[in-house]
Amino acid sequence: SQQGEEDPQALSIQEGENATMNCSYKTSINNLQWYRQNSGRGLVHLILIRSNEREKHSGRLRVTLDTSKKSSSLLITASRAADTASYFCASISGYALNFGKGTSLLVTP
Amino acid sequence: DAGVIQSPRHEVTEMGQEVTLRCKPISGHNSLFWYRQTMMRGLELLIYFNNNVPIDDSGMPEDRFSAKMPNASFSTLKIQPSEPRDSAVYFCASSLPGSYEQYFGPGTRLTVT
Predict the structure, then answer these.
(1) Confidence of residue A1 (pLDDT cuts 50, 70, 90)
(2) C-alpha dist (Å) from residue A58 to A13, A36, B33, B58
(3) Measured between alpha carbons, how far is residue A41 from residues A21, A49, B6, B21 in Å?
(4) Which string of DSSP letters, residue by residue, matches A68-82?
(5) Euclidean distance between CA atoms B75 and A93, whole angstroms
(6) Contacts of A68 (CB under 8 A, 6+ apart)
């Protein structure tokens, strides 16, 4: 079942701007992951944040996690046209990944 | 490493026909997942194998769907008989022992007319 819900569903920005996507989930988690999906391709793992972490960085990506609000955010700084893709959060409880429906990000030159 | 390999990449079939989707996980990965992606329902976990054993098949829609993993390097997802509502992209993913990170294949786009 779909557990994560991303917000917004679609986001359009210009190159160089920052993109922020939010995700909410419903049940307790071990960790939360973010994945990217380019059109017509499989999902690619971006970053994992554990339930005892509040913030994590990887290159131009910054992820936050608020377990009290059951929410996470993904910030992409200095966006590029190549960042155009759909982004999914996936909460994990046990072994199963529960994906949201994703945020579609369009970065225009 | 070639990553997770899925075949075919595209499948078009008529209602009532049998469809078999194939997956080769990354060598050394002991967990394998089958997902289905549609616009309406997003990504849904269909079945999860660990060490070739089906652990959770609660996501399999109905008896028309079956999955096997005869060995560590091969899995199949079969739909018999297929229906138009089965049209979707089917992804296979695998992961290393003890890792939560999943590696996805390119998917099989299934169209049932």
Answers:
(1) very low
(2) 21, 14, 26, 35
(3) 21, 24, 12, 17
(4) TTTEEEEEE-S--GG
(5) 24
(6) none
Asked whether A41 and A86 are in contact (CB, 8 A), the reply is no
Block residue for tokens 């059951």 = A70
Least confident range from A52-61, B71-80, B97-106: namely B97-106
Whether A50 contacts chain B with CB within 8 A: no
How far is A86 from B89, CA to CA, in rounded Å?
15
Cβ–Cβ below 8 Å for A41 and B55: no
Supply the pLDDT for residue B45: 92
The single-letter code of the amino acid at B16 is G
Whether A43 sits inside 8 A of B93 (CB atoms) is yes
Structure tokens at A79: 């966006």
Tokens of B50: 């660990």
pLDDT of the residue at A28: 83
Question: Is A10 an 8 Å CB contact of chain B?
Answer: no
Tokens standing for residue A15? 């190159």
The percent helix, strand, coil of chain B (3-state, each to 5) is: 5, 55, 40
Per-state percent for chain A, helix, strand, coil, to nearest 5: 5, 60, 40
Nearest-by-Cβ selection for A33 from B56, B100, B106: B100
